[in-house]
Amino acid sequence: xxxxxxxxxxxxxxxxxxxxxxxxxxxxxxxxxxxxxxxxxxxxxxxxxxxxxxxxxxxxxxxxxxxxxxxxxxxxxxxxxxxxxxxxxxxxxxxxxxxxxxxxxxxxxxxxxxxxxxxxxxxxxxxxxxxxxxxxxxxxxxxxxxxxxxxxxxxxxxxxxxxxxxxxxxxxxxxxxxxxxxxxxxxxxxxxxxxxxxxxxxxxxxxxxxxxxxxxxxxxxxxxxxxxxxxxxxxxxxxxxxxxxxxxxxxxxxxxxxxxxxxxxxxxxxxxxxxxxxxxxxxxxxxxxxxxxxxxxxxxxxxxxxxxxxxxxxxxxxxxxxxxxxxxxxxxxxxxxxxxxxxxxxxxxxxxxxxxxxxxxxxxxxxxxxxxxxxxxxxxxxxxxxxxxxxxxxxxxxxxxxxxxxxxxxxxxxxxxxxxxxxxx
Length: 425
Prior knowledge:
Elements: H1 7-22, H2 27-44, H3 48-153, E1 166-167, E2 186-189, E3 201-205, E4 240-244, H4 248-251, E5 259-263, H5 264-285, E6 289-296, E7 306-313, E8 322-328, E9 334-336, E10 343-345, H6 392-397, E11 404-405, E12 422-423
Helix pairs in contact: 1-3, 2-3
Pfam families: Endonuclea_NS_2 (PF13930)
Keywords: Endonuclease, Hydrolase, Membrane, Nuclease, Transmembrane, Transmembrane helix
Region (Disordered): 78-146
C-alpha cells in the first residue's frame, strides 16, 4: 500500500477524478482506458503503482457513468414532463383562447340581437303609437264630421222663392276619407224607421252599376205620405211621384226602401237634373261617384220636407263632380200637409170624364176612320206595329228622349202604369 503514500499518485487520482466528473460524457472512454491500463500494467508491463491507479480510475469512471445515466434519465424525464406540460399548457391556452373568442363572439351576437330586438320593439311601439294616433285622429275627425252632418242635415234650410234646390255647406259633401277611398261600385239602402219612412241611401256609382233594362212597375208601392191628388196647375196633373232616392238610371233598384213620396216639381225640377249630371259624368269619364241621399222628415211627419243630395267624383278627387244640395219637397201653387201628405190648391181639381156606355146599335159597317194624332206629330210614324199604342222602345227608336210627360203629344198613346204623369223615367 506504499503507493498511496506517494503524493504524485494522490495528485494524479484527484486530477483524474475531477476530470472524469467534469467530463462525464467521457467517463466511458476513461473506463475503457482504465481497463486497458489494468491489463497492460498487470500482464504486459507489470507496475503495481500504475495498475492500482488504473483500478481506481476504472472504479471512479464506473460510478461516474452510473451517475451520468441517472442524471440523463432524470433530465429526460424532466424534459418529457416539461415538454408534456408545455404542450398541455399550450393546448390549454389554445382552448381557453378559443373559448374566450367564442364567448366574446357569442356575447357580441347576443348584444346585437338584443339591440335589434330593442330597435324592432321601439319601431313597433312607434308604429303602434302612430297608428293609434292616426286612428284617434280619424275617429275624432269622423265624430266631428258626423256631428256636423247632424247639425246641417238635422233641419231644413230656408229656400228662396222659386228655387228648386239650395247649396249646403258651401256645396261640399260631408264624406270621410274612408268614404271616398274605394272605387268598387256598390249601393246600400237604409232600413225603414218605426213610421215606415225611408232612411239614407248610399252608393259608389259607376257604369257597372247602371241597369240595362227598363224600369219595372212600381205602382204597387205606397210610400208614407202618399195621398195622391190631381191638379190642373201641376204638370201632368198628378201631384205626387214615387221618387227614387237613388235614381233608377243609376242603380236600377226599385225597392220600397228606395222610394219616397215626392211632388212632381221636387222629382223633375229638383232631383232629376243632378241624377242626370251624375249619370252623364259616369258614362263620359268611366269614373266613379260617391253618392248619398238623405231624406229629412220633421218630427213624426209622414211626408218628407225634402232631401239632401251629396256627390263626389273619386278618381279626380272631386274635380269633375262635387255637390251638396237640399231639395225641398214642394209644389208651386199647392199647399202640403207634411204630417199626412194631404194637399190643397186654389186651382180646380182635374176630374176624369165619366163615359156612359150606350146600348150597342147594329149599324152598317163603314170605312174605318183614322183618328188624327194630337197636335205635334203623326203617331203612325212612331207606332211601328200599328196597334195604336206606343212603347218606350218605339218612342226611343223614333228619336224621343225619356222621360215624356203628360203634356207631350205622345203621352196619350203610352202606358203610364203608376199614373204619375211621366213615362220612361
